[in-house]
Design a protein that fits this description.
Elements: E1 3-11, E2 22-32, H1 35-39, E3 43-52, E4 59-68, E5 73-83, H2 84-87, E6 93-96, E7 99-102, E8 109-117
Antiparallel strand pairs: 1-2, 2-5, 3-4, 3-8, 6-7
Length: 140
């Protein structure tokens, strides 16, 4: 069964505090295939994303990719740019005794990678009937 190892999330940091300033998020990992998956040339769907550690909705980083188990290990990297405001998942204020207190609340993100065996399914269709008379006395 395929496993995931060396999973790392890296979010770029720099000295631009503008809310619309862009940051690149990168998820890198290794998919490890067993010998049976390799012998079968099995296909897998791969998706990557980020989730907040507080349970708030996350962001997709990688669109769907298909990978084939032709070797024991496949290293992959997904990258996507976000604004600082998209990465600010916690509100940075609270009301204390009726007074608005503004302070930075740390934002915490973790990477999520999903590897799913890709199953080819049959597609079947039928045409409309073609009607004729092809017997001994028929005339097509």
């Amino acid at each position: 069964m395929a496993t995931i190892s060396s999973l790392v999330l890296n979010i770029e940091r720099r000295n631009d505090s503008s809310a619309q300033s862009k940051r690149t998020a990168e998820v890198s990992f290794t998919i490890n295939f067993d010998v049976y998956e390799q012998l079968a040339d099995a296909y897998f769907k791969v998706e990557a994303g980020m989730l907040t550690t507080t349970g708030a909705p996350g962001h997709a980083i990688g669109s769907l990719r298909i990978v084939r188990a032709t070797q024991p290990n496949v290293q992959m990297t997904f990258t996507k740019q976000f604004t600082r405001s998209q990465l600010d998942e916690d509100r940075d204020f609270r009301i204390e005794n009726g007074v608005l207190v503004v302070e930075e609340d740390l934002d915490e993100w973790k990477a999520r990678v999903k590897v799913t065996p890709f199953v080819f399914s049959a597609i079947e269709a039928f045409s409309a009937p073609e009607i004729g008379s092809w017997g001994l006395k028929g005339s097509d």
